[in-house]
Write a structure and sequence with these properties.
single chain; 418 residues; alpha+beta; seven-stranded antiparallel β-sheet; three-stranded antiparallel β-sheet; 26% helix
């Protein structure tokens, strides 16, 4: 992406003169010798100023797309038996009908994806050792809220910003009071979510600040790209997992003169995404298996891969920060008044979109842990503790969201960076 230019004060922007303005049809000005009026040009109208993105990005995306149409992602044709879809009149007509829907899925997804690209571009440029996890998370989330023009459940952050470090692979974001600082030798996973009308763009990348683990990052990014390339309508999820595994396991990392194989984390996976539901029911595992489930036309998937220099298996470890109200939450009596009140707050502000404790702090909730834990124990809210490999291991993550359109596959989150 092009680096955002600094915002100019409107008084400092010179007026643009249009030398091709038409002359006024009516006589105006000084009278010449024959009594005819000397004609003058019309008063010049200043050209409409183009919006300029701020640094950090805080100018709403609609200012740059006043027609409400957002750019599509990378287009990949379907392979082999599905290549006919690209030119099929029937499939093209079906896609046209979807596109003309005023609540089109495509445009909502693309709006979320464009926000993601701009916010992550700034994050990749500015995240540096010495910053706190809270500082990094809040900068990303403030940018997301501003660009998506946050409006309750219509448009918002899609889930808490993941900033998992080193052996922690997923589901860590700082809680209030967290003083953790990013260090030179750290491997940082940055997982960002943006949602528009329930359509979530889910994409992640990994940063490291020395070259020790470059091959780990290369392996995981290559595995994600394999998953994206090989995904398609009628592809079996178990077979796709095998292709991802094969790519990742072809890499090694040299640490302290010792070669360490890169292992896919076997109990993490990519996933389908449904309306207001980050995990939609289908899973793209990272190790070959016998799952015969097929990808289908219209499916929306997060192709998400994790690699490790450790055992390749994660367990829950550490203080929980991530939560989400369950889609199929049971209707059970709540004995705590505070739990009833908190559930009302969750329903109003997040619905089934994942949230974290910082988000509850932000909207004015306090002393809510007892109520929150009660909602978890009653099966109404799911908690998602950090997921960690063994101590000393390093983990990496890359992720893209793809849309299986009737005619082509669209990698909606693809950008110039990854």
């Amino acid at each position: 992406m092009i680096a955002p230019a600094p915002v100019q004060d409107k008084d400092q922007i010179p007026e643009v003169v249009d030398e091709n303005e038409e002359v006024d049809d009516e006589a105006e000005g000084d009278v010449v010798g024959n009594g005819e009026a000397k004609k003058k040009k019309k008063k010049k109208k200043p050209k409409k100023k183009k919006p300029v993105q701020s640094d950090p990005p805080r100018v709403g995306l609609s200012k740059f797309f006043p027609n409400g149409v957002y750019p599509e992602g990378e287009i990949q044709p379907y392979k082999d038996d599905n290549s006919w879809r690209t030119t099929s009149e029937e499939k093209r007509h079906l896609e046209k009908l979807t596109h003309e829907d005023p609540e089109t899925t495509y445009n909502n997804i693309r709006r979320a994806a464009e926000v993601h690209r701009i916010v992550r571009q700034h994050a990749r440029k500015h995240i540096r050792p010495g910053m706190t996890m809270t500082e990094i998370a809040e900068n990303i989330e403030e940018g997301t809220r501003a660009l998506v023009e946050e409006n309750g459940l219509e448009a918002s952050v899609g889930f808490p910003t993941g900033l998992s470090l080193n052996n922690c692979a997923a589901h860590y974001t700082p809680n209030a009071g967290d003083t953790k600082i990013l260090k030179d030798g750290d491997v940082l996973k940055v997982d960002i979510g943006v949602q528009v009308k329930g359509r979530i763009c889910d994409s992640a990348f990994t940063l490291t600040f020395d070259h020790t683990y470059d091959k780990l990052l290369e392996a995981v990014q290559a595995a994600t790209n394999t998953g994206v390339r090989e995904a398609g309508i009628d592809v079996r999820l178990g077979e796709l997992a095998g292709l991802i595994q094969e790519t990742m396991e072809s890499y090694e990392v040299e640490v302290g003169g010792k070669l360490i194989p890169v292992k896919p984390i076997e109990n993490l996976s990519g996933h389908s995404i449904s309306l207001y539901q980050i995990h939609g029911g289908k899973s793209v595992n990272l190790v070959r298996n016998d799952d015969p489930t097929k990808m289908e036309e219209g499916d929306y998937f997060a192709i998400e891969t994790f690699g490790s220099t450790g055992r390749g298996y994660v367990i829950e470890s550490g203080e929980c920060s991530h939560y989400a109200r369950k889609i199929d939450a049971p209707h059970v009596p709540l004995r705590l008044t505070s739990a009833k009140s908190l559930l009302s707050t969750i329903n109003k502000n997040f619905g089934t979109i994942p949230f974290c404790r910082r988000y509850l702090d932000r909207i004015g909730e306090s002393k809510y842990l007892l109520a929150l834990n009660h909602l978890v124990s009653q099966g109404i809210v799911e908690d998602y503790p950090p997921l960690c490999d063994e101590i000393g291991a390093m983990t990496a993550q890359f992720e893209h969201t793809i849309l299986l359109r009737p005619t082509v596959k669209e990698v909606v989150s693809r950008g110039d960076d990854y």
